[in-house]
């Protein structure tokens, strides 16, 4: 049976609301939760970008059962990997073992704020691999010094280290990231139900490790309202990650998606309240071999109704998968 998760989408809600939402997700019966880690929304219409790690700390205290996970944190530009290791170790302690650290090579949208430039994708993946090695070393305990191609660490140590460090998830989109995930990760993270990603992950040591996908949905009893909201806030998602990783701000995403039609979005994102359409959207992940799928309900002010419908209708239907 596939496990169904809930996404705290920091781009579309404020910090207190996000905590309230994940409390509601735990109450509704979601199996796990994830949170995006952004400094900008994708589009101005989303309107938010609180600090994910503060939200996570609050969520750890406000919930008792539901697992928490970054989806994903970039440990190479805004955050130094040694700082990410400290944050993740602290979260594992606060949550009493419910935290997983999801990592990825990032998007220009968020990482440009530190003024370090935005190198080519192969360099970003080199940086990610080195960052993961540093985080692993710090999780192992003791003092760590590292002088590598991209990062320096001088005599670092995690003084509050859980007995079981958080598992590391690595976001994948191609062969190189699958190699990093299979070699260094404890689980795979993806946003597309592509079986070839899992095959490449397995070929590099990922066989038997969990694989987590993510899917935007837009519940509303009024399907037209759902389609309009999904188009207004989520049309950027149709651009694909090769584009989405490069654009520097919401204005760029607005321009890149200006010709995307509402019907294009409705073809890609289940909209309305037809539970069979939502199940059909999850099924490709299950068929591809994903163990877990995190749903993203579009619209920061549309979470409570989605959670109530999920508890009563959607989660029981998805359990049949």
UniProtKB/TrEMBL annotation:
- Domain Luciferase-like: from-to ranges: 8-292
Q: Does the keyword Oxidoreductase apply?
A: yes
Coiled-coil stretches are none
DNA repair as a keyword of this entry, yes or no, is no
Alphabetic keyword roster: Oxidoreductase
Q: Which NCBIfam families match?
A: F420_G6P_family
Q: What is this protein called?
A: LLM class F420-dependent oxidoreductase
- Which organism was this protein described from? Streptomyces amritsarensis
What taxonomic classification does the UniProt entry list for its organism?
A: Bacteria, Bacillati, Actinomycetota, Actinomycetes, Kitasatosporales
């Amino acid at each position: 049976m596939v496990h169904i998760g809930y996404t705290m989408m920091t781009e579309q809600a404020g910090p207190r609301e996000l905590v309230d939402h994940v409390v509601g997700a735990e109450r509704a019966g979601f199996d796990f939760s994830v949170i995006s880690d952004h400094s900008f929304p994708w589009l101005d219409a989303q309107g938010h970008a609180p600090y994910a790690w503060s939200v996570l700390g609050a969520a750890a205290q406000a919930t008792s059962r539901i697992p928490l996970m970054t989806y994903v944190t970039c440990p190479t530009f805004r955050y130094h990997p040694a700082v990410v290791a400290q944050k993740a170790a602290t979260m594992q302690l606060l949550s009493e073992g419910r935290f997983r650290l999801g990592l990825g090579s990032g998007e220009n949208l968020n990482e440009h704020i530190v003024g370090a430039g935005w190198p080519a994708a192969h360099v970003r993946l080199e940086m990610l691999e080195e960052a993961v090695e540093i985080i692993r070393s710090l999780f192992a305990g003791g003092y760590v010094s590292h002088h590598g191609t991209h990062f320096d660490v001088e005599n670092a140590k995690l003084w509050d280290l859980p007995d079981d460090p958080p598992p590391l998830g690595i976001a994948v989109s191609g062969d190189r990231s699958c190699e990093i995930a299979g070699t260094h990760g404890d689980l795979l993270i993806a946003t597309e139900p592509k079986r070839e990603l899992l095959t490449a992950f397995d070929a590099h040591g990922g066989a038997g490790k969990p694989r987590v996908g993510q899917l935007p949905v837009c519940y509303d009893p009024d399907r037209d309202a759902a389609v309009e909201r999904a188009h207004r806030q989520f049309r950027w998602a149709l651009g694909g990650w090769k584009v989405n990783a490069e654009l520097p701000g919401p204005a760029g995403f607005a321009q890149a998606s200006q010709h995307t039609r509402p019907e294009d979005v409705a073809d890609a994102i289940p909209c309305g309240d037809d539970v069979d359409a939502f199940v059909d959207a999850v099924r490709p992940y299950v068929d591809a071999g994903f163990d877990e799928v995190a749903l993203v309900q579009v619209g920061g002010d549309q979470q409570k109704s989605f959670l109530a419908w999920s508890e009563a209708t959607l989660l029981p239907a998805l359990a049949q998968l």
